[in-house]
Amino acid sequence: MATPLHAYFQGKIVPYAEAKIGILTHGLNYGTAVFGGLRAYWNPEQEELYLFRPLDHYERFLNSAKLLHMDLSHTPQSLTQITIDLIRQDNYRQDIYIRPIAYKADEVIGVRLHDLRDELAIVAIPFERYLKNDTNAHVTFSSWRRIDDNAVPARGKISGAYINSAFIKSDAVNAGFDEALVLTQEGHVSEASAMNVFMLKDGVLVTPPITDNILEGITRKAVIELAQSELNLTVHERSIDRTEIYLCDELFLTGSAAQIVCVTHVDHRPIGAGSMGPVTAAMRDLFEKVLRGRLPKYRHWNTPVYLNTTVVHQN
Ligand code: PMP
Among candidates 98, 55, 42, which has minimal Cα distance to 221? Predict the structure, then answer.
């Protein structure tokens, strides 16, 4: 992976090599940090880099920070503006990934959330594909369970919570799969290690509700809207049983890093015909156009980095 050139760190843009923290930093030791993951997509015809729904990402980021009693004194707009300034500094003309992180910055011993200083950092790096196999993914059900809202809230993108995702991902990969789905304590399908899940059954698109310990994905939100408006599909947000997944017609995963991943096998069982189905293919196609600012109807989801002067994105 490429090294970022610059970072926003302690209130200004600095060379990445200067953005350093001490090893006693609270966020590193106790996981008391929250982060985001945004993408910007290069459109060569328009010579423009489009940030995808940055205000939604930063709203979620600030909500995650709120869960950890952080006050960052920022708005989604101000964070988007910093992101634009940072990307412009390096003049990226390719797809990139942006990682904002807010962390408890004191270098002290003692686990808590209160009486600690909060710091914000943002980095941007060139980024192409997250999952190698995004057209034919083989997935398993993890033996781990998803973290529960009453222990570690999944709706916050909390650094420490990602050890749950890391267990899920590594055990799946070590067992020869591309990804894993994880169940809630009650046994309902929650999501993948860092992606939301959608299944198609009898022409209806179904995805777990936000109360099944999912991260409320920005991609998920966009896919629900596109499925209804562009593909005329009914979308249900409801709990899903494990064996419904084995018997569904199509299955895909969604996330900012990987966009839309087609799953063709779960626990060695073929999904539908065992190859990409028409709805998944149509959604992947549509989403790629939307991300690159090629569909005027959804241009309000794209914030241009280079033409932009003020941030005007609306949901
Ligand atoms: N679930 C988890 C646990 C994630 O980390 C992510 C990635 N942010 C997602 C779902 C997908 O969310 P989004 O579409 O906003 O990237």
Answer: 55
User: pLDDT tens, 102-142?
Assistant: 999 999 999 999 999 999 999 999 987 777 789 999 999 99
Closest CA to 254 of 181, 315, 175, 201: 181
CA of 294 to the centre of ligand 1 (A): 24
Give pLDDT, residue 308: 55
According to DSSP, the residues that pair with 34 across neighbouring strands are 102, 158
Kindly give the residue spans of alpha helices, DSSP state H, lying in the chain. 26-30, 54-67, 76-90, 162-174, 218-229, 242-246, 278-291
Mutation to probe ligand 1, out of 164, 169, 212, 215 (largest number of atoms < 8 A from CB): 215
**Domains of the chain by start residue, with CATH:** 6-126 (3.30.470.10), 137-276 (3.20.10.10)
Half-sphere exposure of 299 toward its Cβ, with a 13 Å CA cutoff? 8
- Rounded distance between C-alpha atoms, residue 75 and residue 58, angstroms: 8
The closest-lying atom of ligand 1 relative to the alpha carbon of residue 154 is 3
- Spatial distance between the Cα atoms of 211 and 214, rounded to a whole number of angstroms: 7
- Closest approach atom of ligand 1 to CA 193: 3
- Find all residues with CB under 8 Å of 49, minimum gap 6, and list them: 40, 41, 42, 43, 87, 92, 93, 96, 304, 305, 306
Whole-angstrom CA distances from 309 to 136, 179, 299 are 41, 40, 16
Buried b / exposed e over 183-195, threshold 16 CB at 10 Å, is bbeeebbbbbbbb
d(CA 11, CA 32) in angstroms, rounded, equals: 20
Q: Which residues line ligand 1 (CB under 6 A)?
A: 37, 165, 191, 194-196, 215, 217-220, 254-256
Positive or negative, the CA dihedral 198, 199, 200, 201 is: negative
Nearest alpha carbon, ligand 1 atom 9: 195
Residue type, 129: R
The mean pLDDT value for 279-298 works out to: 98
| Residue that wins the pLDDT comparison between 308 and 285 | 285
